[in-house]
Amino acid sequence: MAKGHILVVDDNPNLLELIKIRLESADYKVSATADEARALGAQTEQVFDLCIVDLMLANGDGLTLMEKIRAIRPDVPTIILTAHGSIESAVEAMRRGAYSYLTKPFEAGDLLLQIERALENRKLSSEIKRLKELLNERFDFANIIAHSAKMRAVLDVVSRIAILDSTVYIHGESGTGKELIAKAIHLASDRKDKPFVALNCAALPETLLESELFGHEKGAFTGAVKSTRGLFTQAHGGTIFLDEIGDMPLATQSKLLRVLQERQFYSVGGDAPIAVDVRVIVATNKDLAEQMRKGLFRDDLFHRIHVIPILLPPLRERKEESKVWRRSRCENSCCTTGRATCASWRIPSSTRWR
Question: How confident is the model over 270-286, as pLDDT tens digits?
Answer without folding.
Answer: 888 899 999 999 999 99
